[in-house]
Amino acid sequence: MPIRFYNSITRKKEIFQPIKDGEVGMYTCGPTVYDYAHIGNFRTFIFEDLLKRYLIHRGYKVYHILNITDIDDKTIKRSKDENTPLGQMTEKFTGYFMNDSKWLKIIPANEYPRATDYIPKMIEMIQILLKRKYAYTMDDGSVYFNIQSYPDYGQLANLELKFQRSTNRVANDEYAKDDPQDFALWKGWKEEDGDVVWDAPWGKGRPGWHIECSAMSNYYLGEHFDIHCGGVDNIFPHHENEIAQSKCATNHKFVNLWMHSEHLMVEKGKMSKSVGNFYQIKDLIDLGYSPENVRYQLLSGHYRTRISFSSNKKHEGDRVINRISDLRSRLIELGAISLANGELPAEYGIFINKLDDDLDAPGAMSIFFQWMRNLNTKFDKGLYNDVDIGKSWEFLCALDSIFGIVKVESTNIPPKIICLADEREEARKLGDWSKADKIRDIVRSKGWIIEDLSVGYKIKNSE
Fold first, then answer.
1. Which end of the chain lies in a sparser environment, N or C, as judged by fewer CB atoms within 10 Å?
2. Strand pairing partners for 38?
3. Are 454 and 385 members of one domain?
């Protein structure tokens, strides 16, 4: 079965065929580093991580670019409000984003271009657009793209300009799609911009948000590449404007496949600080979430459907993650690592078919969980052999390579807990069950559980 993905620009599923066999060029819109990224942002980043992991699992070599927006209206405003140099402020929040991504087990991109490093490339593209009469200058040194000069404008957002109210031009980076306007490629310098300014042939100023991604994706992936991703909120105006300026500057098709994740609801509502359902990653860590739990919640719904992240689902997520972890420990105890030889159970094929159908993550997870229940029943009854153990390990590894939800035992177990566990193991060997039970209870009171194996023991967090 071929891989089929839903293409936002054609509004249908299409067989995935990369431009170059076996290789995929992928651009994902990264964070605007004026604040901490929140759980809604990470719904998109984890969807993109799933897509990338799956393509890698299916044998593709993925070249992934994730940009850092370190110059736009929001970053300048935050820098001014804090009275902090723009570079210092954006560097701080870029670091937080990188740490959060690492904690969430997101596979690093190949490159993380920062917009401020590519101003010359942006100026070059704008010069081409001016020369080809797709853009025009203003007296204040600004440059605007003329959307009427590009007949296909609105194709991604499904707009027909003749039926839309259209005003002259807009300087803001973001605006509503019922009000399409000529948008800023370059913003002439204003006093509130302070020292955030670059020289350009038409006047000093700074780039508009939209030209940044066109310039950076073009630099790394070429004029025409395979996949561009983002959240649905990026469709208009950002991605619509990227398409227009990129195609007009290069005379080539820009992107083959556009993929967008839906909004995330939090506690069944729109995320808002005023109602107390606004979660950043540091908040979830404080609440005792594991990265696997967060990933499970964000991947348990299809990326094109709205899902709700809820603290009420934490216990359910913990149970699921712990069952998978228990299976992993059981397989290791049975010698699975040495018995695995690349063979997989029949259920793996059904699992892959689900993911081939536009990344049907909930469908694939359902297949895996049913297989896991059946497998545990077989193990409990002793109805298994070495081949079953080896195949099971391969399937578990496949699940983790794609979803990243298999929790490996922590290597950060406090030394005192390890000492207590060793002391208890000695008591068990001597048949001192009373002492062994007492130590086990002490360890549990400190938030850890000792589980006895046929040989030795394992320690895991009680949460």
1. N
2. 280
3. no
Under 8 Å between Cβ of 388 and 424: no
* Neighbouring-strand partners of residue 461: 448
* 288 found inside a domain: yes
CATH number reported for the structural domain that contains residue 65 in this entry:
3.40.50.620
What residues pair up with 114 in beta bridges, in sequence order? 68
Rounded to two decimals, the pTM is 0.87
Same domain, 155 and 189: yes
User: What is the C-alpha separation between 441 and 435, in angstroms, rounded?
Assistant: 10
Q: State whether 181 and 292 are in the same domain.
A: no
Query: Could you give the angle at the alpha carbon of 206 between the alpha carbons of 222 and 183, nearest 5°?
Result: 75
164 three-state secondary structure: coil
CA dist 112 and 280 (Å) reads: 21
Beta strand 255-261 pairing with 225-231: parallel
Over its C-alpha atoms, the chain yields an Rg (Å, rounded) of 26
Domain of residue 276 covers 266-403
Q: What is the pLDDT of residues 268-288, one digit of tens each?
A: 787 766 666 789 999 999 999
Number of domains in the chain: 3
The residue behind tokens 């990243």 is: 404
